[in-house]
Every structure is written in C-alpha cells, then in structure tokens.
C-alpha cells in the first residue's frame, strides 16, 4: 500500500518537474517536443495508476464493509436465537407456574373438605397417592 502511494507521489513529482522544464523551453525547439511527449506519457501513466489505486482502495473498503455487515448480521442472529430460546422457555415455565399456583390455591380451599368445588371433584381421580397403583 505504501509502495503504491510512493509510486503515485513519484509520478506527481516527475510530471511537475517536466511541466516546470517545459515552461523554460522554446516552444519551437526539438527538446520542447520531446519533453512534451514525455509529459504526455507520464501523465497517461499517472492517470492509469491513480485509477488503479482508487479501484484497489474501493475494493478494500467494500471488503471491509462486507466483513462488518457479516459480523453485525451474526451478532443480530445470535441475539434473535437467544431471544427465541428465552421466549420458548417462558412459554413453558409461565403456564406451569400459573397452573401450580391455581392447584395450590385449590388444594388450600379443599383442605378442610367442608366445601368442595366441582373442578377438584373431577380432577381428584387423576392424582395417585405416592406408592399406590
């Protein structure tokens, strides 16, 4: 990268030097014609090299941008996966907690046996005593 920049700087200096030399020469001289031809060739090289340098920079920048986008996408995917797992876990745990709370309240209500609800009368046959068949 530094070498490319150094080459561009060297071409800039060479073009500048030829322009300064061209200003001191007689326009009708053979040396003026040769210097102008050299300037034309150097200027063409300068334009081509600058274009290649800018194209290279654009590709490097695009690659960096693509890498950053991929990292951000991976991070977003990770957060969505974690969020999905949390929501699925809550979808299991919260209803169980709700039913456990209702069961506890129902058993508390039915504890004395004085008042019985039809809900617990219908549910009692699903419960088995520990160790029983």
Structure description:
- It is rod-shaped and about 125 Å long.
- It is built from three helices and no strands.
- The protein has one domain.
- It is mainly alpha-helical and 133 residues long.
- The mean pLDDT is 81.
Beta-strand segment tally:
0
Strand content: under 5%
User: Globular, elongated, flat, extended or rod-shaped: what is the shape?
Assistant: rod-shaped
Tell me the number of helical segments per DSSP (H or I, 4 or more residues long).
3
* Major sheet attributes: none
Give Rg in angstroms.
42 Å
Q: What is the mean predicted local confidence, pLDDT?
A: 81
In percent, how helical is the residue content? Answer: over 70%
Number of domains: 1
List the uncertain runs. Answer: none
Query: How do the helices and strands follow one another from N- to C-terminus?
Result: HHH
List the helices and strands and how they pair.
Layout: H1 2-24, H2 30-110, H3 118-123
Please outline what is shown here:
The chain has three helices and no strands.
Write out key terms for the chains shown.
single chain; 133 residues; mainly alpha; 3 helices; 0% strand
């Amino acid at each position: 990268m530094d070498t490319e920049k150094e080459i561009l700087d060297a071409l800039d200096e060479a073009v500048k030097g030829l322009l300064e030399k061209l200003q001191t020469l007689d326009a009708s001289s053979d040396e003026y014609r040769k210097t102008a031809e050299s300037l034309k060739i150097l200027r063409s090289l300068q334009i081509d090299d600058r274009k290649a340098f800018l194209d290279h920079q654009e590709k490097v920048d695009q690659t960096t941008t693509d890498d950053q986008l991929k990292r951000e996408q991976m991070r977003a995917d990770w957060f969505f996966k974690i969020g999905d797992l949390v929501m699925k876990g809550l979808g299991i745990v919260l209803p169980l907690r709700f039913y456990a709370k209702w069961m506890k309240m129902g058993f508390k209500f039915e504890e004395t046996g004085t008042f019985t609800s039809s809900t617990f009368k219908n549910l009692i046959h699903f419960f088995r005593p520990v160790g029983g068949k």
